[in-house]
Write a structure and sequence with these properties.
The protein has 351 residues and is an alpha+beta fold. 22% of the residues lie in helices and 19% in strands. Bound molecules: fe (ii) ion. Keywords: Iron, Metal-binding, Oxidoreductase.
């Protein structure tokens, strides 16, 4: 039995607030073609939306940013629920067109309250805002382009020490069968001996297939570590494996964790206009299967990733980072590309 988002994890804009924000975003797209802007340009344009955000949304986002909440925040009514979006894109990396440009600005405007939006050049052509749509032939992959296959428990880019701190999923078009699931690491109930095994930075995480990159070497990581009241987690049901024997204590600890994730899951089917923000250092997420129609009317989300550490963001020097294996960070991890990043924390400037 799954749980639902709590009242503390949800904020709903009034119809008047939604209308005012949408008009402000639409005005911006009338003055500039978002598709013509580079990643910095579109982010800067989205900054102009801040005055259109209700104060209580800004306060809720600040609570989420400082980790005082429940590691997830659902913003309802960020977009008008009755907006016509037209046919959906055919792939994750298609350019933003029509009213989806204004929606992308709303997503980036909110994201800027949590840090700096960024992406990797290896990920869907380096688009700062990606479409999350089902793609023919990808139905059973472990990517956001899947549909009829279960997208199993994972964190975004768990193989990378530079993975995002937060990410946002903004729903333009919903799908009743597609439930987004998540679990906060702080809600996991595990025996101390299992926690101890999972805290060892010896598990191996491979890059997922959404990244187009030559170096697909695995990264060493811990799975669950940190203080009991706010632990961090790095997990993937498909790409993470035990360093030791398949019947060893590390493998058993992973199986115990997988069962606990299923037991503690929170589940929500995103509806039009809703934005789900998840802390990617403290939650694991998944998506249930659904049937794609492939006729332009399928489920359609916009996604962006957020770096909440300004020093780490500035270290890269650009908004589209060249390598998730950490070209900048190679020196930090001895140049091996194998970062025992469970031993670090994601705090601002901690890396
Ligand atoms: Fe994901």
């Amino acid at each position: 039995m799954s749980a639902r988002l709590s009242a503390e994890q949800t904020i709903r804009l009034t119809p008047e607030e939604t209308k005012a924000l949408w008009e402000a975003a639409s005005d911006l797209t009338r003055s500039e073609d978002v598709a013509e802007l580079d990643a910095d340009g579109v982010t800067e344009l989205a900054c102009a939306l801040t005055p259109a955000f209700p104060t209580r949304l800004l306060r809720a986002l600040h609570r989420h940013r400082r980790g005082a909440g429940h590691d997830a925040l659902l913003v309802s009514g960020l977009l008008p629920a009755d907006q016509e979006w037209g046919p959906g894109p055919r792939g994750s990396a298609e350019p933003l067109t029509g009213p989806a440009q204004a929606a992308a600005l709303c997503l980036l405007g909110v994201s800027l309250q949590l840090g700096e939006p960024f992406t990797f050049s290896t990920f869907y052509s380096g688009r700062l805002v990606q479409h999350v749509v089902p793609v023919p032939s990808m139905e059973h992959t472990q990517t956001s382009e899947s549909s009829s296959g279960m997208l199993d428990w994972h964190v975004e880019d768990g193989f990378s020490p530079d993975r995002c701190d937060h990410f946002g999923l903004l729903c333009l078009r919903g799908e009743a069968a597609a439930h987004t699931r998540f679990v906060s690491a702080r809600d996991l109930e595990l025996p101390d001996e299992v926690r101890e095994v999972l805290s060892r930075p010896v598990f191996l995480m491979e890059p997922d297939t959404a990244h187009e990159m030559a170096d697909r070497s695995p990264t060493a990581t811990a799975v669950l570590w940190g203080p009991a009241e706010a632990p961090e987690i790095c997990y993937d049901a498909h790409y993470l494996g035990p360093a030791g024997r398949p019947d060893g204590e590390e493998a058993r600890a992973l199986r115990r964790l997988a069962a606990e994730l299923d037991a503690k899951r929170v589940e929500h089917a995103l509806a039009p206009g809703e934005l789900l923000l998840l802390d990617n250092r403290r939650t694991v997420h998944a998506r249930t299967p659904f049937q794609a129609r492939n006729d332009g009317t399928d489920r359609w989300l916009l996604r962006t990733m957020i770096c909440s550490s300004l020093p780490r963001f500035r270290e890269h020097g650009v908004r589209v980072w060249p390598s998730p294996h950490g070209a900048v960070g190679a020196g930090r991890y001895g140049g091996t590309g194998a970062a025992p990043h469970g031993a670090t924390t994601s705090g601002d400037g901690a890396r």
